[in-house]
Amino acid sequence: FVESYHPSSTxxxxxDARWLEWVTKQFESIAGEDKEIDLEEFKTALKxxxxxxAERFFALFDSDGSKTISLDELLEALxxxxxxxxxxxxxxxxxxxxxxGMCLDFSWPAGSGSIDPDELRTVLKSCLxxxxxxxxxxxxxxxxxxxxxxxxKDNSGSITFEELKAELENFPEVMENLTIxxxxxxxxxxxxxxxxxxxxxxxxxxxxxNNSRKLLFLCAYTCLNLLLFITAxxxxxxxxxxxxxAKGCGQCxxxxxTFVMVLMLRRCLTWLRATWVVRVLPLDQNILLxxxxxxxxxxxxxxxxxxxxxxFVHLSQxxxxxxxEHLFTTRPGIGWVQGSASLTGMVLxxxxxxxxxxxxxxxxxxxxxxxxxxxxxxxxxxxxxLVVHCANFWKWFVVPGVIFLLEKLVGVAVSxxxxxxxxxxxxxxxxxxxxVIKRPQFFHFKxxxxxxxxxxxxxxxxxxxxxxxxxPEQPDTLWLHIRSMGQWTNRLYEYFRQxxxxxxxCVCISVCQCFVDGPYGTxxxxxxxxxxxxxxxxxxxITPFASILQSIIYRMRKQNCPNCxxxxxxxxxxSEMKLRKVDFIWINRDQKSFEWFxxxxxxxxxxxxxxxxxxxxxxxxMYMTSALSKNDMKAxxxxxxLDLLAKKEKRDSITGLRTRTQPGRPEWGKVFQKVAEEKxxxxxxxxxxxxxxxxxxxxxxxxxxxxxxxxxx
Length: 713
Fold this sequence. Notes:
Layout: H1 10-30, E1 36-37, H2 39-46, H3 51-61, E2 69-70, H4 71-83, H5 86-97, H6 117-130, H7 137-151, H8 161-168, H9 172-180, H10 205-210, H11 212-235, H12 241-262, H13 266-272, H14 286-316, H15 323-328, H16 341-358, H17 361-365, H18 369-376, H19 379-389, H20 393-415, E3 420-428, E4 432-438, E5 450-454, E6 464-467, E7 477-483, H21 487-496, E8 505-520, E9 532-538, H22 543-555, E10 558-560, E11 567-569, E12 581-588, H23 598-607, E13 618-624, H24 636-649, E14 661-663, H25 668-678, E15 683-688, H26 691-704, E16 707-710
Parallel strand pairs: 9-12, 9-15, 12-13, 13-14, 15-16
Antiparallel strand pairs: 1-2, 3-4, 3-8, 4-7, 5-6, 5-8, 10-11
């Protein structure tokens, strides 16, 4: 349960002291009156769940063979691991693998004991379970043979300590981790030190450069609101302070309640993305701006309501109408439609607050998207009440409102043009539904675009947005990959799932009708105008990049000379294609998730030339977060074996791709440092996935001066 650093580091000494204190407390809380713990208590105290490793650690720590461990035995062994030499740590690793070995004794001479193939297979099998990797027994045999043959230098049929040490030296990254991490395999989750996160440095040139359009836009937005507020206050100075504040907020609400709609004119924004305007305005952050304006509306409306309330308190003291009549009746005659300003204002305040609460991240991400969807449709009633509530609102609303109405009418017309049917359904691992839809005749889109889909058999009136995962060059069908994360998506999966179905099921149908509204553009439209693009997909966040990668396949079609072995790619430098390099990074939690697009990735590897003059045009990087990373010593043997077998078979044992699947999470600093060193041109990073990871990646992009784009719709 320790992460040991160089002894000269004050921080590492502090961490060691905290760790030893934690172990002591854990031991004392578990041990009985005899002040010793047995194997089961050892598992509980140190939170070691894997039986094999728990038993091996226990046996090694039990120096007197009493089948119990005293606190002194435990601390003595762990102190040696923390402050021992590299050879000490290597010997501990060797004895974990040497199942027939005895207790932990760092004084043993090098070469004592040996590891036979059965012992190595037992260790690797436990490593696979720890990393949640499922491989057939034949593959486990291949891994065991690959590592054993490489380590057994003298072909003696067993691996000695010196041979294991020599084998580890062939893996510098493993030796580095072993040197840094003494007993990292024992570290409890609660004590794991969080790596320092790079928070955006709002005053640095890099931050201002990467966010210049958004910051300038927000400055202009803030100044406009201040101007509207002050102007309205000055015009109504005769009404007193609270009346002035109410009027100032009211004027700002006129603007913001209209502007919040402008930010969601998807067809107009999609069209503007193809013009020079995209270089001036932050069109790619329209969702973020829409949310910010929504919060501004709540703030202005709350202050507006409070100011009117205070003003009514004052008026009720000097008029024949009471405070209650001012608030809840039309008798005072306040408002331009039969004195209804107070009543409509109260209703508007409640509706606006409910809309904001129901659109919170918690509601949308917790499987209750329908709550957000239906509550947001109340915007129609909000606008209607605003027209009744405020005499001047219609002047602000009329032009954007007409455009909004036209967009909706066009959307209805396009979505119902021709009969669209789902022609094929594939149910994939982790409850992902792959829909293959007949493509409309005049449906044109760009890689990474998204559509709204309505399936009457699932929900007659609900429309949900999903990224198109097929390429524009694919003429007959559209692909959507939909992960079950809410009520509608779960109903979709269950609708097509047959009883006693297999894990992956293909159902061919031609009777399920659907309607598609779109396409709508996203930041990924800019990828082919980039020079060096880094595509990062987390889980199902791969979908926009699946479309992009398939489009790359079409644009990189190989041509072979019939008279020689020379081959080349046509259309690689078309009018829109400025790409010189693409790095694709896909992060998945489990092994089965890679099956979603493994055939596409295999085709990409096959179609790409093995060597090109300027290096590979496309590099793929796969990460599996449930697998123990190379700095976890329970995974060292497995990762070495996977590397050796991948080199021998020229394919990864986990996915079947040529690209080796890396365990754990990417070290973004090292990833982006490598990208920067390639110097292929201006780097643009495109991300689709969890918001928490987006913040981390964005901070790293700002550090390296890369442009960052996050998929939002």
